[in-house]
C-alpha cells in the first residue's frame, strides 16, 4: 500500500528558483532510493478565503477562525507556501529509502545557495494511504 511523506514549507518568492532547483535534485535522489513520485505544489495567492472551502451551513459562526496553509506553516507576510510530498511503494520501502536518501550528500543544502527556507518552520509528517475516490 502506498506510503507518503508530506511537507508544508514557507518560502519567500525570491527563493522559489533556488527551492525549485534544490527540490528537483532531492526528488531525483529520493527516486533513486525507491520513491515512486515527488511532487511540489505552490499556494495560489489569489485563492479564496479558508472559510470558502466549508459548506454554507458549516460556515455559520466561523468568522475569522479558519486557518490557512500560510498560518499552519507559520508563514509571514510576503511568503508563500509549498506543499510537497513523496510517494513510496509502502512503509518498508519508505523507511529504507528515506534513510538512504537523507544520508546521501546530494540532499544536503549547498551553503553557497544560502538559506532557501527555515527548516525549523517546515511542517512534516508521514501518511498512510486512505483511498483514491
Short synopsis of the structure:
By secondary structure, this protein is an alpha+beta fold. It has helices spanning 16-32, 56-59, 69-72, 91-102, and strands at residues 3-11, 37-42, 80-88, 123-128. The protein is built from four helices and four strands.
Structure description:
This protein is α+β, with helices and mostly antiparallel strands and 133 residues long. The chain has a single domain (3-47, 65-109, 117-126), classed as Alpha-Beta Plaits (2-Layer Sandwich), CATH 3.30.70. It is 28% helix and 23% strand. It has a four-stranded antiparallel sheet with strand order 2-3-1-4. The two termini are 15 Å apart. The model has no long low-confidence stretch (mean pLDDT 86). This is DUF1428 domain-containing protein. It comes from Brevundimonas denitrificans. Pfam families: DUF1428 (PF07237).
Amino acid at each position: 500500500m502506498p506510503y507518503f511523506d508530506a511537507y508544508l514549507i514557507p518560502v519567500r518568492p525570491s527563493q522559489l528558483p533556488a527551492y525549485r532547483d534544490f527540490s528537483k535534485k532531492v526528488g531525483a535522489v529520493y527516486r533513486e532510493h525507491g520513491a515512486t513520485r515527488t511532487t511540489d505544489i505552490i499556494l495560489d495567492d489569489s485563492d479564496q478565503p479558508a472559510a470558502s472551502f466549508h459548506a454554507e451551513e458549516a460556515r455559520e459562526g466561523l468568522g475569522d477562525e479558519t486557518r490557512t496553509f500560510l498560518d499552519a506553516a507559520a508563514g509571514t507576510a510576503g511568503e508563500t507556501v509549498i506543499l510537497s510530498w513523496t510517494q513510496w511503494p509502502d512503509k518498508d520501502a519508505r523507511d529504507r529509502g528515506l534513510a538512504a536518501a537523507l544520508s546521501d550528500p546530494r540532499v544536503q543544502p549547498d551553503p553557497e545557495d544560502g538559506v532557501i527556507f527555515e527548516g525549523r518552520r517546515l511542517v512534516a509528517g508521514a501518511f498512510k494511504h486512505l483511498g483514491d475516490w
